[in-house]
Amino acid sequence: MIKMRAAHAVKLKTIICKEVEVPHITDNTVLVKTKMSSICGSDLHVVNMGYTYASDFPLPYGAPGHEGVGEVVESNSPDFIEGESVLTIPNIYSSKTFADYQVIEPKYLVKLPVNCNENKLMMAQQLATVDYSCKHIDSIKGKTIAVIGQGSAGLFHNFILKHYGAEKIIAIEPIDHRRSISKYFGADITLSLTGQKATDAILDITNGDGVDIAIEAVGSVETLNQAMAICKPQGRVQSFGLPTTLQPIPFDWNTFFSKRLTINSNFGSQDEPDLASVKKSIGLIAKNDIEMDKILSHEFSIEEIQDAFNFAEKKTDGLVKITITF
């Protein structure tokens, strides 16, 4: 049997590279050879914090990777042929991109334009989740918006929110490098403060009113509740960051209730009809409308997957996005 390398999350905070058999395609599926993938913040929550939404440890081979670029090597789908370069965007229940090969349904594949930088195009998956999320906000044009967190998800929010006409974006980020590049993606004001000091600063900037919309792009109890605290009455919180647990979390009901806030999540971009946000994001990146060079900061090989996760967890200054090479 032909073997491949695959990441295997065997227990909490432990993800190894293992040699396993290449999977076989079934009816209406496609076998894709992975060229590169990337670590999403949600992957850290799954492996290092136990947010195992799909199954308990050990996770399936290749999980929880869901951002990748590959080449079709075998297809039982009329929509894809051998040799085509594709973006692999499996949903959370079928994520297996941290492997040399993956069997994937054609609805989670998008053909990539030729002669474009595939490393940059790989970021279309996360950019698309941001676009999908922002499309579900009723009104963005002319609004003052706070984005909590300036990892790749927060930076992409700056860009997409400006694209939709936001008037002012206030970015909250304690890490110097991320904060320094946030203005390239659309942030008008950046704050190095966190916690109550950041909340006080937002209220000062908005003359005590609070922001129209708060984007939570970190994924913690503290920042979710902070998002409500910095919103004006009848404002909106967009919950983008994945929480650290599947268990119920503390929630500031009084602020939510007394301010009459609206809170939404962003789940479901991979199942959007015709993958409209994904295709839009591929177009934006292909046209160099967004500075992806500032996002793609570090590379590790699949054999170094544990080192990559350890490095990502430290949030070392200078880190934005890790590419996994094959």
- How much of the residues is beta strand, in percent? 25-35%
How many separate domains make up the residues? 2
Q: Class by helix and strand content?
A: alpha/beta
- Write the CATH fold name of the largest domain: Quinone Oxidoreductase, Chain A, domain 1
Gap between N and C termini: 20 Å
Number of helical stretches of at least 4 residues: 10
Radius of gyration: 20 Å
Percent helix, as a range, is 25-40%
| Apparent shape | globular
The CATH superfamily of the largest domain is Medium-chain alcohol dehydrogenases, catalytic domain
User: What is the count of β-strands?
Assistant: 15
| Element string (H = helix, E = strand) | EEEHEEEEHHEHEHEHEHEHEHEHE
Q: In CATH's first tier, which class of the largest domain applies?
A: Alpha Beta
Q: In the CATH classification, which architecture of the largest domain applies?
A: Alpha-Beta Complex
Uncertain stretches of 5 or more adjacent residues: none
Q: Main beta sheet, described? A: 7 strands, mixed
The averaged pLDDT comes out at 95
